[in-house]
Amino acid sequence: MAKVILSKHKRAKQWAVFSRLWHLYDAKWQNPFDSADLIAKYLSGKNKPIFHTLSDCGDHVVVINTAEIAMPDTEWRYRIYRHHTMYAGGETFTPAWEVQNKDPTKVLWKAVYRACGTSLLRTTRMERLHLFPDNVIPDDIKINLCSQIRQLRPVPKRLSEYTKEELDKFPKLYEWPEDYVKV
């Protein structure tokens, strides 16, 4: 059998396939359930060409702005999380908005946990998930980041974020008369 000699460039590419990368995802104004499916894909390694269901080749995912997630329609009120202490009468049902107020990372964590499936590797995949309620990341994690996962939805600009020139250029539907008095 002939020995295959790889150039330095091809060898580095091969090593990069097997390395664990650190990805950044901004959860601001994103649906946590759609985001969880995307994040679970990176945690399990489904984005790599060497993926196999029995192999543990997933990457680390750092998620920022989990306090600013957006759920569709009336999900904040009607999505209920169940918890049981395993004692008699220890079952509680908590709406999503209460869970988010107690811990701003918990709703997204639960969504990713569910999206990871029932595999035996779910706990090791969840260990590679790093959630932060705002955009402040510790320096020891920040130096590892090497790529960014694109958001699923564009984040709209707030009215206060527009400049005076942009507001003046915006087309008006109605021009108020000069003698109009606003109350």
From TrEMBL:
Coiled-coil residues are: none
Record key words, sorted: Ribonucleoprotein, Ribosomal protein
**GO MF term (any one):** mRNA binding
One GO BP annotation is:
negative regulation of translation
The protein's matches in InterPro entries, at most eight in alphabetical order, are given as: Ribosomal_uL13 (IPR005822), Ribosomal_uL13_bac-type (IPR005823), Ribosomal_uL13_sf (IPR036899)
Cellular component aspect of the GO annotation:
mitochondrial large ribosomal subunit
Give the highest taxon in the source lineage: Eukaryota
Q: What protein family is recorded?
A: Belongs to the universal ribosomal protein uL13 family.
According to UniProt, the name of this protein is: 39S ribosomal protein L13, mitochondrial
Q: According to the entry, what is the taxonomic lineage of the organism?
A: Eukaryota, Metazoa, Ecdysozoa, Arthropoda, Chelicerata
- Gene expressing this chain: mRpL13
